[in-house]
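Hi team,

Filling in the usual template for the complex we talked about on Friday. All components are listed, including any nucleic acid strands or ligand strings, so the model treats them as one assembly.

SUBMITTER: L.P.
PURPOSE: interface mapping
COMPONENTS: two
RESIDUES: 562
SEQUENCES:
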Amino acid sequence: MIQINDLVKVYNTKKEQVIGVDHVSLSIQKGEIFGIVGYSGAGKSSLLRCLNLLEKPTSGEIIIDNISLTKLNQRQLRAARLKIGMIFQHFYLVSSKTVYENIAFALKAANLPSKKIHTRVLELLDMVGLTDKKDVFPAQLSGGQKQRVGIARALANNPTVLLCDEATSALDPSTTKSILALLKKINKELGLTIVLITHEMEVVKDICDRMAVMEAGKVIEEGPVYDMFANPRQELTKSFVNSILQFELPSHLLEERTGKIIKVTFQGVIAEEGIISDAFQQYSVKGNILHGKIEYIQNNPLGIFIMELTGADHEITKAIAYIKGRTKNVEVIHHAS
Amino acid sequence: MPLSIDWHYIIELLPDLNSAFFETLYMVGISIVVAIIVGLPIGILLFVTDKGLFLENPIFKNIVGFVVNMVRSIPFIILLIALLPLAKWITNTTIGPTAASVSLSVAAIPFFARIVEQAFREIDKGVIEASVAIGASPWMIIWQVLIPEARPGIIQGITITIINLIAYSAMAGIVGGGGVGDLAIQYGYYRYDNTVMITTVVVLICLVQIIQFFGDKLSKALDKR
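RESULT (copied from the run log):
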């Protein structure tokens, strides 16, 4: 669906060359929601803006819907852009146009006859739930409503791809949820492929199927969101994952413990209770849960528990080995001194 | 000489003042129309050919920018005289308000173009970029995004240009251009006729205030930000 081949984007400033995107190759499947995360300056925004050629790539190729965008002339590129919607962190609505006119503008760009524009605008307004705000100017809308207009404008010409540039970063948490729900809905109902960039792992966790992590212009890790949460390999990915899964134990709590403290990660529908209680029955160790939670990522549970094991050292070692054998994910995070 | 106002004299002057007033409106009117028709496209071109915009063209931008600056740097009084041959060629005369309109227009075009360019710069670059991402053509972006978004600034620019033109039109008296300013200079400056000078200055002050008032009102009404 979207194929990015060896994309490079270099910015020439007066003093030096800055590499925005450094030899990135990705393929994004039809109908999936793909998240690109990274800190600011990692190049994720440059990468996204290269996808519809708002930024002209220095080298490499972008293929969307079997069309190689990098080979098109201006006129062909404009036609291709009609099928690639884009929404922005700061919405970027035309302030002198009403909600209706903002959406109609996108349809005029596609040279639709005015009768069709009218019915399509009403249809889109209904889809984003803003029918009553039709004749209002953007300045009178809330952030969430502005983004809904942005989404309606982006979807006007029935695009196959929607690019989201930090689309929820300027919104409060509850508005973010409702915008994400709307994106998820249009992804499901229209089969739209969505590429979003964000620095908020919460967004990725909530709606993305797959994700890529960017650092210094490179994609350092990519894969299904669940796998990335369960088994992050790169340090940066771990720190992003930790922003959701991390739980800090108070330091005095650790100091007072006499046993070994382990962190167990359960993936999917493993019978969590079973493994631990089996371990306790087979070996003479006692366990005490200090902290724990189960996150649901795309409705798949990911459980993380921090527990203290007490008993004879060799029994504890065996118990850990047993748990490891069944969950593959045990980490000793603290040895009692 | 004490400042004293002779009302009978003013009433006597009224026909002169009246025709001078309409001469001023005539000169300024022609010039502002020409400035808008020619200056607006130049301002648009200066803006859209700038770095990072959808018709980026540094060579074009620099050449047009240079010419605009050049015309703007010539003192109006010199431009007025230097352009007499052009006025003669266009209007077939070198005196009167029509001839003066030629120089006034030439001075107003680059001034207005720069103001328009500045008004466009006030637009959030993201809004322009969003329009490019939509797939709109340059023509569509100019007419449906840039001009509506910059409309309050353009109206302000027209107001400022008109007021400048009124001031410049006084100098048109040098080449027999006519108008209220000319009257002020001819009577008030050369003949030390305070009554005429004060009367004309008051007329000019009122005119400028009225134009500024309506310009501000219109600009505000069109501002939806």
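MY TAKE: The domain at 2-243 of chain A is CATH 3.40.50.300 (Rossmann fold). The mean pLDDT of chain A is 90.

Thanks, L.
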